[in-house]
Write a structure and sequence with these properties.
It is a single chain. It contains 18 helices and 38 strands. By secondary structure, it is of the alpha+beta class. The strands form 8 sheets. Strands 5-6-4-14-15-16-13-17 form an 8-stranded mixed β-sheet, with helices on both faces. Strands 8-2-1-12-19-18 form a 6-stranded mixed β-sheet. Strands 29-30-31-28-22-32 form a 6-stranded mixed β-sheet. The protein is globular and about 85 Å long. Bound molecules: flavin-adenine dinucleotide.
Amino acid sequence: MTENALPQRARVVVIGGGVIGSSVAYHLAHLGEDVLLLERDRLTSGTTWHAAGLMVTFGSTSETSTEMRKYTRDLYSRLEAETGLATGFTPVGFIELATDDDRLEEYRRVSAFNRWCGVDVQEISPREVLDLFPLAKVDDVRAGFYVAGDGRANPVDVTMSLARGARLAGAGVREGVRVLDVLTDRGAVTGVRTSAGDVECEVVVNCAGMWARQLAARSGVTVALQSAEHYYLITEPFEGVSGDWPVLEDPASHGYYREEGGGLLVGLFEPVCAPWKVDGVPDDFSFGQLPPDWDRMGPYLETAMSRVPVTADVGIKTFFCGPESFTPDLQPVVGEAPEVRNYFVAAGLNSIGILTGGGLGRAMAHWIVDGRPDIDVTGINIDRLHAYQTNPEYRATRTVESLGMVYQCHYPNRSMQTARGAKVSPLHERLVARGAYFRDVSGWEGADWYDPTGGTPEPGPLTWGRPRWFDWWAEEHRAAREDVIAMDMAFMAKFLVQGRDAGALLQSLSANDVDGDPGVITYTQWLNDGGRLEADLTVTKLDDERFWVVASDTAHRHVEAWMRRHTGDRHAVVTDVTSGYAQLNVQGPRSRELLQSLTSVDLSNDAFPFRAARRVDIGFARALCVRITYLGELGYELYVPAEQALHLYDRVVAAGPEFGLRHAGLKALASLRMEKGYRDYGHDIDNTDSVLEAGLGFAVSYDHDFVGRAAVEAKRSGGPLDRRLVQVLLSDPQPMLHHSEPVLRDGVAVGYVRAASYGHTLGGAVGLAMVQAPETVDKAWLEGADWQVEVAERVVPATVSLRPLYDPTNLKIKA
Ligand SMILES: Cc1cc2nc3c(=O)[nH]c(=O)nc-3n(C[C@H](O)[C@H](O)[C@H](O)COP(=O)(O)OP(=O)(O)OC[C@H]3O[C@@H](n4cnc5c(N)ncnc54)[C@H](O)[C@@H]3O)c2cc1C
């Protein structure tokens, strides 16, 4: 076989030789995999060749993203020694500018978190900004956030170096070979069909950049990304510019700035953007650029150039526009597709593919080799996305907003504003009439809070502090604790699992015992072989052959794929009934009285105890009523066929006034569950946590076999835990916690808040934090020190607890 002949087989075929495909191939080869990278044209010919090459570790409040950035920077700085090809990484430094109070607050919060992650970020004065970047206008600058070790790299050199490193480690790299199709058999990858013949393989990794969606669609795989125009300009060279200056970024002016060829490169993230080629990226688009839209970009350009005013006086050498892929939530599309076994994707990089590419390649390689990722992927997993998000109109509409979001202030209550109304609850119009303010909940319109004044709900200005609707939210919270609330939860993922072996299937997946008596709901986790969390959900046994499985919206497709992939030869059929059923939660100490006034079924504690699940009649409707709570009170969840949802809702609401019924939204759900310490998968617990560290050992039953059991037992017998999830309550009622705030024990950071809300009953902001001890996280360790949380620049005293701070003995829920 000649050097250029295509091998007939490889265990893994990586499709696409941009920075991502090259990094995936590099890392797979270093793990000893038999890997072949196929590139349609030449390496870097898609988006990578024209990237600006910013290398930034500062700026994310995601541990996953920050770790990827750090790893990438380190990799690019040492790659030349391994491959002989320089990456062009130059640690000239990076400065983020804050020009108003809200950005200052944001970057102080980010800095605190990034420092905890090991990023050496310093807050510097406007004067210091000027010293480092003498051409910047700093009269309106509040502060700069400076990372001396960040800088820039050359994306083409990075990619070539990675590809050389892959080859040196044994990978095949072929240019000029287009993958036409991925071949599958019985839902699993078997090979690829290419312009140069077929190649057998067990695994493919679609790293085809902006082509990834089109290629994936041929195999029925959903990759929701869209290419969009992305701009920078390069000035003529001029006196006084230095290549040693740091990269400067000013999101408020839509721009970033660095030296290029003796002049300056001014990069742009405009707030209103333009998708490109919604109908599909041409197959032959290589090393391509797009004609710049001067009219559209003119005003943004002017604002960006005003930060470095001299750029307006020197000539423009190039105004460059190239396409880059953006996703609906600005997170990459990563992992094994739920539709096809061993079909992996790493695409949709949202303009940070160079600076995260090393880390992403490393993570993908471990995922493929070990069978599961070793980082938290809950926010980036391909299975969070849904097929409708590949619709042309959806992509065209959402992408107008997504690129610009990169440079917006990332306020805690911000929701995407475009492509709204894609999915609505059967109760939607009723909730509108009640004054609901909606936010995007995995594409659903979710009622977040209610304006009880009868007007159109106005959220007021976005803020890091108390929002305009704080008191209405508090009132909803109070009603749940003292009276009764109604909450629309139509967006929850619901599955009917039926068949002779349905119980055996679910029992084998569930750490808890879910196959006991019929008519009982069980809270459980699903684990992987490593004993780490894959899902957090409830299973209700309806009868011996029918089970009702409910998971959160973000876990929808993950849970479904997990069940299907573990079914094997069992007689068990999984049906997604999310669209067929509404869910109305009626919760609070007076919920029993309210529902009892509507049904002939005896709801007394003896007849209908905690965890009971029964059919109830309400008016003309028949609902599945489950006595369970996610907010820590006596309460019920009503599941009703969608066509009876309005009828049931109207009956509940009509009976409500006598019992103090109030509508409550998702903000109240968050604050109530957080006080009770109830977990939320993908927010405060994720796939890197063992079930024991997550504090969910009480939901593990050792009387049956289940996936991950050996790992849980090993962990249990391994001695006390040195890492655990704890509840954190600020002693000062004023500051708000959002997430990612470092938690300090006697002044030393030992973890961070993974998710938070405001405890209206407890009287302060409350969150869940994973903390790490030198030896054991136990009561003595928690009580033997002073605790604080770092909120922006403030250190706020706090209480920490392993037990729920609200109703630790569960008296309320069993009342
Ligand atoms: C103007 C601009 C500035 C940017 N600046 C930065 C920056 O400063 N820092 C940063 O981190 N990121 C930046 N980016 C983003 C970065 O360039 C991208 O995120 C990154 O290059 C994406 O890499 P990729 O490998 O996913 O895609 P690509 O580079 O597009 O690679 C995909 C490859 O797949 C190949 N391919 C497609 N279909 C097939 C097929 N069927 N068979 C075989 N091969 C196929 C293509 O030819 C292509 O080479 C910038 C982007 C733009 C547009």
